[in-house]
Design brief:
This protein is an alpha/beta fold. The chain folds into two domains: 143 residues, ATPase, nucleotide binding domain (Nucleotidyltransferase, domain 5, 2-Layer Sandwich), CATH 3.30.420; 181 residues, ATPase, nucleotide binding domain (Nucleotidyltransferase, domain 5), CATH 3.30.420. It has 15 helices and 14 strands. The longest helix is centred in the C-terminal third of the chain and has 24 residues. The mean pLDDT is 97. The structure holds adenosine monophosphate (AMP).
Length: 396
């Protein structure tokens, strides 16, 4: 089976053509500068092709992707009919979606209804879906939501302690994000530890970071909230912050709430604390050169991640497995060691040699650790392809 996985942003579109059973990727690439001019980067194995192709909308971007996939020289399939289904990443499923689903008119309408909750991403995700429907009308399309995995949270985790009318009238609650990644890592970890019923905390640490408390494969709590701004400090996001900070800054500097939120989303986090970069490799280089601001940025990040792990261990009333994933979680041995050093009271003990790895699936805790600690590289595209295949096969 061939599944085309699409992740459409406002001016870009990533794609992978993959086999959901084996995870083999036959081709992948990126359309950039949609609405501006248009550039396609297409990779087959180690072979990379870059082409400037006019992309006045997402439709032309999708057409460019399909054209290159069937190209006699650079393509990997003979005809578009060889694509059995398309899986789309959709940011916000609101309270409408607790699982992936096959796209029909009612699903499109429900994704539109969630635009106020995901104003930056949902319109772009919809454009990706509608562009595919237009050029390949007979191919089933599946929507995979970043929020869906978190819909098993109990009310005590997802409700905010604010007047009920905002929940009842406006759907204001914790939703959480990175759900496709948390779901993939939860599923993979169950295979690795060889059981289904256990308590785990997954740390998705990348440019955006979120933690997820998972029991028996189901999300119990997660650190992001109504939006991805909440939780631990990130590359450029502040993470959790007292709402009065917004009031103070808006009043003192005559900023609008939107301007202030833009600052909290794009100019805060470890970028703001270090004054150097949002990239953890730059922070580690700064730390090695004795830059105190880089040291503070890293220490703040480790501290807040460790605090979330501690609180989720309490929320789950124990924890069997801690997993690290995403750019920093997979590639940062010193980050993992610094975070786990806070957790010695829980009997967490790393094996320093095993932890000295990057991008590899590996058990990194010592044999006598009370909690297993794993690095599990995430694969959101494979999760999207597997959900897509499962739904399309079930509908046959
Ligand atoms: P992601 O958002 O998952 O792509 O992760 C991006 C983050 O991963 C950036 O902050 C990178 O600095 C970080 N990252 C990638 N490779 C490494 C590495 N080898 N060591 C430390 N951080 C890394």
């Amino acid at each position: 089976m061939n599944v085309l996985v699409i992740n459409a942003g406002s001016s870009s579109l990533k794609y992978q053509l993959m086999n959901p059973e084996t995870g083999d990727v036959s081709a992948k690439g990126l359309c950039e500068r949609i609405y501006i001019d248009g550039r396609l980067t297409h990779k087959v194995g180690d072979n990379k092709i870059v082409k400037d192709i006019p992309m006045p909308s997402h439709s032309e971007a999708i057409s460019a992707v399909l054209n290159i996939l069937v190209d006699p020289v650079d393509g990997v399939i003979k005809s578009v009919d060889e694509i059995d289904a398309v899986g789309h990443r959709v940011l916000h499923g609101g309270m409408e979606f607790s699982d992936s689903c096959i796209v029909d008119d009612s699903v499109i309408a429900a994704i539109k209804k969630c635009i106020p909750l995901g104003p930056l991403h949902n319109p772009a995700n919809l454009m990706g879906i509608e562009a595919c429907q237009a050029v390949m009308p007979k191919t089933p399309q599946v929507a995979v939501f970043d929020t869906a995995f978190h819909m098993t949270m109990p009310p005590k985790a997802y409700r905010y302690a604010i007047p009920t009318e905002y929940y009842e009238n406006d759907d204001i609650r914790r939703y959480g994000f990175h759900g496709t990644s948390h779901k993939y890592v939860a599923k993979r970890t169950a295979e690795l530890v060889g059981k289904k019923e256990f308590k785990m905390i997954n740390c998705h640490l990348g440019n955006g970071s979120s933690l997820c408390a998972i029991k028996d494969g189901k999300c119990q709590d997660t650190s992001m909230g109504l939006s991805p701004l909440a939780g631990v400090p990130m590359g450029t996001r502040s993470g959790d912050i007292d709402a009065c900070v917004v009031q103070f800054i808006c009043n003192k500097y005559g900023m609008s709430v939107d301007e202030c939120l833009n600052m909290l989303n794009k100019k805060s986090g470890v970028l703001a604390l270090s004054g150097v970069s949002s990239d953890f490799r730059d922070l580690e280089a700064g730390e090695a050169n004795g830059d105190e601001n880089c040291v503070l940025a890293l220490q703040k990040f480790f501290y807040e991640v460790a605090k979330y792990i501690g609180s989720y261990a309490a929320a789950l009333n124990g924890v069997d497995v801690i997993t690290f994933t995403a750019g920093v979680g997979e590639n940062g041995p010193s980050t993992r060691a610094a975070i786990c050093s806070y957790l010695e009271f829980m009997g967490v003990k790393l094996d320093p040699e095993a932890n000295n790895c990057r991008g590899k699936e590996r058990l990194i805790s010592a044999p006598d650790s009370k909690v297993q600690v794993w690095v599990v590289p995430t694969n959101e595209e494979l999760m999207i392809a597997q959900d897509t295949a499962e739904l399309v096969n079930a509908a046959k």
